[in-house]
Amino acid sequence: MRLGLIGFGNIALTLLGQLAETLDTPLEHLVVLSLPELAGDTEARLKGEFAGVAREAVVVTDAQALLSHRPGLVVECAGHAAVVAHVPAVLRNGTEVVIVSIGALSDANLETELRAAAIEGGTRLILPAGAVGGIDLLAALGAAGGLEVRYRGSKPPLAWSGTPAENTLDLGTLKEAATFFTGTAREAARDFPKNANVAATLALAGAGFEATRVELTADPAAPGNVHEYSVVSPLAKYTMRIENLPSAGNAKTSVSTVYSVLREIRNRIGPVAI
Ligand SMILES: NC(=O)C1=CN([C@@H]2O[C@H](COP(=O)(O)OP(=O)(O)OC[C@H]3O[C@@H](n4cnc5c(N)ncnc54)[C@H](OP(=O)(O)O)[C@@H]3O)[C@@H](O)[C@H]2O)C=CC1
Ligand SMILES: O=C([O-])CC(=O)C(=O)O
């Protein structure tokens, strides 16, 4: 496989470690789109600790340079701004893209642009389940309409640092669970871009950004990053609760997100996709 990665932070680094461990043969080619100020460090790490992941690995700093290396699949794991900056051009070029920063689609204009770019390029934008699960059933039920979806995201207080939760809570001293946000999935994904991509994933699979109700909670007793949701549809009802281990490199991001991306890659390499 010729793989493109946008971003070289916690998800990308963990993913490359997993690929190194699990692939039978190295990737044919790896191209990483990094920020200009991180490019030198990215190159050094690709040549050092990740030397065995791909037969050839290069670092670029813009989408045109990324595309010049003809990746067969591009994975975005950099943040909402990177989706805006790079993903439309990659799709228009006809290259399939997996994005983890799904909450970027809470901007309706960007969602329209990405859908149009995928159509123009004759390719697809892939939205993986990320840190949540049950998206297969939710998306299937969504086709029948009449969905009611309620989601609650709970994380330990410090996983909400640097977010608007700090406007109402003292995260460093919080002793009890506190819900600091109640609203739509569109508002949650927009206002918590590093913490509420799951809300956007549920919305896109199910009842939409406006109808999907969201609560966000800081909880000192949370056993990890917890995603709970309930679905009522004319066809089925279910509830789901996932207790995720946070990533070692970023407490906001559950490590299962990385495995969800790994699944997308392995499903394109192996003889069976599941
Ligand atoms: N779908 C899901 O379930 C989940 C989605 N996510 C999404 O994944 C994103 C990445 O997570 P994670 O890896 O843990 O975060 P990190 O902050 O560890 O890594 C992101 C990296 O991308 C870099 N970056 C930022 N902007 C760009 C850009 N325009 N081009 C290239 N690189 C860029 C950052 O640099 P710098 O630090 O200098 O800004 C950083 O090195 C999160 O921001 C979130 O949006 C996270 C968890 C779950
Ligand atoms: O990783 C998680 O647990 C979820 C997350 O940050 C997000 O939805 O953006």
From TrEMBL:
The protein's matches in Gene3D superfamilies, at most eight in alphabetical order, are given as: Dihydrodipicolinate Reductase, domain 2, NAD(P)-binding Rossmann-like Domain
Where does the Aspartate/homoserine dehydrogenase NAD-binding domain start and stop, copy by copy? Answer: 7-128
Stored Pfam families: Asp_DH_C (PF01958), NAD_binding_3 (PF03447)
**What pathway, per the record?**
Cofactor biosynthesis; NAD(+) biosynthesis; iminoaspartate from L-aspartate (dehydrogenase route): step 1/1
Amino-acid positions noted as binding NAD(+) in the UniProt annotation, renumbered to this chain: 131, 197
The superkingdom listed in its UniProt entry is Bacteria
> Can you tell me which residues form the catalytic site?
227
Known EC number: 1.4.1.21
Record domain Aspartate dehydrogenase: where: 175-262
**Biological process, per Gene Ontology:** NAD+ biosynthetic process
Q: Which reaction does it catalyse?
A: L-aspartate + NADP(+) + H2O = oxaloacetate + NH4(+) + NADPH + H(+); L-aspartate + NAD(+) + H2O = oxaloacetate + NH4(+) + NADH + H(+)
- Misc remark for this entry? The iminoaspartate product is unstable in aqueous solution and can decompose to oxaloacetate and ammonia.
Biological role: Specifically catalyzes the NAD or NADP-dependent dehydrogenation of L-aspartate to iminoaspartate.
Question: Which PANTHER family has this protein been placed in?
Answer: ASPARTATE DEHYDROGENASE DOMAIN-CONTAINING PROTEIN, L-ASPARTATE DEHYDROGENASE-RELATED
| Family according to the record | Belongs to the L-aspartate dehydrogenase family.
Q: What is this protein called?
A: L-aspartate dehydrogenase
Protein's organism: Nitratireductor pacificus pht-3B
The protein's gene is named nadX
